[in-house]
Prior knowledge:
Number of helices: 18
Mean pLDDT: 83
Largest sheet: 5 strands, mixed
Number of strands: 7
Structural class: alpha/beta
Strand order of the largest sheet: 5-4-3-6-7
Radius of gyration: 30 Å
Distance between the termini: 48 Å
Helix content: 40-55%
Amino acid sequence: MAINEKILDELLKDYKVPEDLTGEKGLFRELKKRLLERVLNAELTEHLGYEKNAQKPDETGENARNGYTRKKIQTGEEKLALNIPRDRSGEFEPQLIKKHQRRFDGFDDKIISLYAYGMTTRDIQSHLKEMYGVDVSPSLISEVTDAVIDDVKIWQSRPLDEIYPIMYLDCIVVKCREDGVIRNKSVFLALGVNMEGRKDLLGMWIANNEGAKFWLGVVTELKNRGVKDIYIACVDGLKGFPEAIQTVFPETQVQLCIVHMIRASLKYVSFKDRKAVAADLKRIYGANTASESEMMLEKFAQKWDDKYPTISRQWHQNWENIIPFFAWPDDIRKAIYTTNAIESVNHSLRKVLKTRGALANDDAVFKLLFLALKRLSKKWTMPVRNWKGALSQFAIRFAGRFPL
């Protein structure tokens, strides 16, 4: 907004030292106070329908100005004592500074931003004191961040897209207090890739442990919120997980995470054999085709079954859900053969959780993770670089299900 030079000259005519501008009784503080009060008075004039000290029109009824209420507002770096105009009937609702509002100028956003980085209430309190010279009570910080819970509930129940070409399903373990005891709880995450090729976290669910039965409830909720089809679901090696997905979405192609398969395999292997076993496993998942991969698995079994029989057995048992990625070109193959897209999200969340210790309750878990994810999502990239090419592949392979 352009400001007339004559106005600036008038404001600065008594300026002598910097404190005249920035001091406690300086021009900046006084100007901010006067501007806010001027806007509030203009709002009341609009509400009543006539100017202050003007003759009251008959049609306005009995309502009239009724003095001021003194109110202190936190504006970030300072507190301002403002005179808030009021009306006789109590109907006036200021828009600039609403009733019961005690903070202004994005102050809540500062608190929420710090909280999203994993800072504790005490850390935020110290930071605001150091950076802005503002004393903020722990109860105020809790009040500001607790207001996010309503946003979480709206977000968690929002309608979803009808089709997600790729979806990643995984969970993260958090420490949470329950009945005075610190327990490990599982937070289930569903990360979808929409038709534009962009990642979108579809929801969070919390339970005492991870299980296929609970995942069945999660996938059912996704369907109830509008999801009609998932082309490829990328999951870890949890027993019964593929069946849980295909109960709700029977045509979905389930891809087991190869990285999880490798980890599960190597936990049976002695340290001196790990390098050799890992190299032979790479020949299985690094093959060019499913048939070549199956040949590599047979060679692996011949070489290692006498020493580690459970490894090849695991791969044979899960073979149907291991090999789907071989049918795709490299760019899609890289996006679906591992759950890295959601694992990287989990890694970032663990860094946030690491600074917090045990959280007070389930609401505290949702609040912290929701704010952290909101911050992290700004940096998310597309999992498939050539998304237009990927859509062409999906259109051919899922011809009857692809929207025209």
